[in-house]
Amino acid sequence: MQMVSIPDGLQPWEDRSDICKLTLSILQIMSGKLEVTINKKDGDKVTCVIADACMGWAIRVAKNMEIRRAAFWPALVTTLASMLFFQKLIDDGIINNSAINIYQLVRKTCRPIKPEPDAATIEAAFQVVIEAEEASRVTDWFICNSTTELEFAPFSLYPKLLPILARRLPRAWHWLRIITREEITSKIEHLLSEQTIRDKALDIKDKIRSSVNEGACSQRNLNNFIEWLTEKDTNAKDQHSP
């Protein structure tokens, strides 16, 4: 298995904090870049493409090139099921295909997003939802980081979704329980009271924010994050060494 980094279409000096601009560039540019990347693999034939479901264009490229494909969803399957259900609601005439109207409908059941996205950003985000729904219909596998015991309803609604978390749960299933708000608050307060942990978290937060503002690519951000963690752990061990 090989992880591949693909250009998002924006130049290094362009503003990647502009979500609308970045999303549209990804949707318009990256599918072509992926196809070029696959064709350049002269000696190493690509036999399967695994992509985040929000990158539905990658699944479509793999289908067009007759390559096996697997979509992956790391978040709640309930959220994915809501996204996949939009098209049926539109087809049944319950809602129209206006991204703005759908956003207003979702907004009634969710906490408000701050800052409030503009119409162009909402339309761009809705295109990602459409791509994910299309990917669900053409992918060979749709694997999800969950289990039927935790999210029975969405897995029942979409039998094609494959839970992969179940294999890791049985031995520890008896440890699963509802964690109260008081327990979470207590743990967070304990962590924040530890000055070393607090300083480390604030330092990493500042470095990540600085890296993102500089317009770094995702791969470099990830490498920097790992480097910062390793650096901190190494320094901590050195301080405790005799």
Automatic annotation (TrEMBL):
Source taxon at top rank: Eukaryota
State the Gene3D superfamilies in the record: Glycogen Phosphorylase B (3.40.50.2000)
Which family is annotated? Belongs to the UDP-glycosyltransferase family.
Q: What is this protein called?
A: Uncharacterized protein
Organism of origin is Tanacetum coccineum
Q: What is the lineage of its organism?
A: Eukaryota, Viridiplantae, Streptophyta, Embryophyta, Tracheophyta
